[in-house]
Amino acid sequence: MKPVEVQSKTHQTRMNRRKFIQNTALTGAGIATGVAAISCKESDTKALETIETASVPLAKPTYISISTWNTEKANTTSGELLAQGKPALDAIIDGVAIEEANEENTTVGIGATPDREGNVTLDACVMSPEGDYGAVLAVENIVHVAALARKVMEETPHVIMAGKGAEEFAYTQGFKKQKLLTPSSEKAWKEWLKTSNYQPAINVENHDTIGMLAMDTSGKIAGVCTTSGLGYKMKGRVGDSPIIGAGLFVDDQIGAAVATGMGEEVLKTVGSFLVVELMRNGMSPQKACEEAIHRIVKKGDRYKDFQVAYIAMNNAGETGSYAIHEGFTMMKYSDGKSEAIVSDHFTKKP
Ligand code: ASP
């Protein structure tokens, strides 16, 4: 395990001020102090720092990475990079690359389940702490689509590229052409063709779309989401995962959220944006994820047949997760410790 980089005092003070302002602004008791803190002049900084030192414990954790499903290796990779002081966006793109290259994971990257015509098409997006966004939709022959989404964000005047255009752009950026349909995913598809029964599974062995959110040692937040979407989807179908506000949303001043599960339902409720906006209005990440799931289930009984789950973090380093059904896990890595957090769910018996 890599040692955790010790932050400078100035950095800690800056982090504390940010959290102090947020925390005091959110609690009844802290409203007056919070307003005073926000409106104080630069010349009052010394006084503010004295208040902070006296009343606010040091910001914990110093960095944090969370991811959807049981994706420990990927999330630990991201966490260890954060521990070395790497920026959040670099850490999470390297983290999810582990699952994109994992042929055993049938929902992401190489080896993913194809559409009903046998084409493996991938979707991904990234959001930076600056609020920039890049996405690729329905891309074939490229394994590391999260890194490609970042290239769209950083190297083009656009934010979304789809299909052949995205693939051709990938080659100009040095990405390799690779066959994504493996012998095993091809075999499973041929088996599926015998019935052609389209029935998205509620949980795919606790391994599905990987969404990852991280806060780095300078307190900046970034997010990524990468997937092959629903197995045996119609050709051309795109889900929530690469769509800003649906599959992923990051507002570095507030926090971030990422979704997994039935993308059509996440899209209809603009789920990840909703979670971040609920946090902006004072909800904890946990409560915000719960409320976003309630928006889906209160529409009727159909939720019984599909899974949706959210994970979220705020800029105080608090995290939360919630799913419709049992069987969803969030991985969390912070300050050198990896945890698998079994998510609470809506259908839990009272
Ligand atoms: N949300 C993804 C989609 O609908 C699939 C998943 O997470 O299972 O494309």
The second-level CATH architecture of the largest domain is: 4-Layer Sandwich
Work out the strand percent.
15-25%
Instruction: Please indicate the count of domains.
Output: 2
Order of helices and strands: HHHEHHEEHEHHEEEEHHHEEEEE
> Taking Cα atoms only, what radius of gyration do you get, to the nearest Å?
21 Å
CATH class placement of the largest domain: Alpha Beta
Strand order of the largest sheet: 4-3-2-6-5-1-11-12
Low-pLDDT regions? 1-57
CATH topology of the largest domain: Glutamine Phosphoribosylpyrophosphate, subunit 1, domain 1
Ligand types: aspartic acid
In DSSP terms (H or I, runs of 4 or more residues), the helix count works out at: 11
CATH superfamily annotation of the largest domain = (Glycosyl)asparaginase
Structure description:
By secondary structure, the protein is of the alpha+beta class. It folds into two domains: about 50 residues; about 280 residues, Glutamine Phosphoribosylpyrophosphate, subunit 1, domain 1. It is about 35% helix and about 20% strand. The strands form two sheets. The protein has an eight-stranded mixed β-sheet with strand order 4-3-2-6-5-1-11-12. The chain has a five-stranded mixed β-sheet with strand order 7-8-9-10-13. Helix 1 packs across helix 3, helix 4 runs antiparallel to helix 5 and helix 10 crosses helix 11. The structure holds aspartic acid.
